[in-house]
Amino acid sequence: MDPTGQKYFTIIDYVIFALLLVASMAIGLYYAFTGGRQSTTQEFMYADRSMKCLPLSLSLMATFQSAVAIIGTPAEVYANGTQYWFIGCCYILGLLIPAHIFIPMFYRLHLTSVYQYLELRFCKAVRICGTVTFIFQMVIYMGVGIYTPALALNAVTGFHLWGAVLATGLVCTLYTALGGLKAVVWTDVFQTVVMFTGQLAVIIVGVHQAGGLSDAWVKVRDGGRISGIDLNPDPTVRHTFWTLGVGGVFLMLSLYGVNQAQVQRYLSSRTEKEAVMSCYMVFPCLQVALMLSCLMGLVMYMVLYFVMDMLQNFPGLPGLFVACLFSASLSTISSAFNSLATVTMVDLIKPHYSMTEARATLLSKMLALSYGIICVAMAYVVHLMNSSVLQAALSIFGMVGGPLLGLFCLGIFFPCANSIGAVTGLAAGLVMAFWVGIGGFLSRMPSSVQVLPFNSTNTVLAISTSIPAGLNGLYSLSYMWYSALNSSTVVLIGLIISFMTGPTKGDDVASGTVYPVMRTAQSLLHKLVKLSACCTSPEHTVRWS
């Protein structure tokens, strides 16, 4: 440490960080020069549909367990208590619905891009609109995802900002472009192990530094960090059971139900059953990730400062946690590269240009490489923005997911919806998303909730029970409801326009593109009635003497 208080990496820390990048690159090179050597688009984009459920489930979890979450979740728990932990409740429906509705439908349609569904159900124009919206969403987030951990590392350790950005971007781009989806999935597995190891190590040392489990518990309890369940139905309250447990379901569906990065993994499974099982197995993985992040928030203030300050006497531990942080970044960015290359190739190029399989594979690799370069360029754009615009860019990622979810729900659950209604609904959903999201961001006043010192015996400042009215009420809507609001707008407007312009007739709907809601509900009701009758029949009645 220098006289200014700046912390620095030791040689061991640099070695551990370098090993992460080398190992990730080695995995990519292994799959580039073994097996089919990524010589076909089927292998490059979908791993020859040969992946097993365990690596897929870890990859599905790692894809959106970004560096922003690794830093942000502990900071949220420290500042506002454990209320955020209740988001784990939304994981149940948020994964059950994709497992039983979205995955079987997409798998049976033999899609190569999730946006192919939109053409099968509606028309090519809807497919292109969905694809372009997804590309816009992911390109913005790529720059934020790679810049955020590099900026945090630079601010705390003096690590060269653009050295970190370029190293991460280059390694990620190369192993994605060379090794295809197999490399992305298996590096995700490796990086998940690094993430969990780094988080667990920091928690163990943090608890030890606090004096043990009992002393740590007393401190977080007396500091008001342990939050009870908040059943306040006010949708403008940032985090309650309803915003997290119900609003979070729509966010989960947009991520694990219709996002290309995730659907591409489901479709790479050997069988439909394994695809569904991989979705089931994401549940415990996400719960473990959430638990570790929340526990970190209970033992520290700001993650990186805590690591570099209190853990400086443990050689290699700061490097391990930074490796954990960048593992989260690598897993997210590599998934973005691969999915973007896939939708660009399948949805925008292949339908208009005929080419040989070898040329298509080469072009797919070049697309992945190109998106890597764009990622670094976007990181520079983010660097030129101030912090408030950075937050807006992060919000855009979440805001765009809701309208896309609504578009797919419109097609899957409403046979009467037509193409005009789909396009108009998507446009209305995007307008609503940016209006409420950006309007709320600009109108939001600085929070008056104070972060309590760790030895405080007071509780967190109570939130006012007054509910904003009019536009202020809409702008004050909790960000956890954005996906629900935007997807509902797409469905509502889409249905209205469909009925105004002539609803789609049942015979005109492509086979397998609509989920039989009524038939499934009737079947479920019949089973429940049959089970109830069985349980109450005389031969099943237990007699007590």
Low-confidence stretches: 447-467, 540-545
The CATH superfamily is known as Sodium/glucose cotransporter
CATH topology, by name, is Sodium/glucose cotransporter
Kindly state the mean pLDDT as a whole number?
Answer: 82
Highest CATH level, the class: Mainly Alpha
Shape-level CATH architecture: Up-down Bundle
Rg result = 24 Å
Described by the principal axes of the CA atoms, the overall outline is globular
Distance between the amino and carboxyl termini: 79 Å
The biggest sheet amounts to: none
Order of helices and strands: HHHHHHHHHHHHHHHHHHHHH
Strand content: under 5%
Count helical runs: 21
Number of domains: 1
Alpha-beta classification: mainly alpha
Helix content: over 70%
Record field, number of beta strands = 0
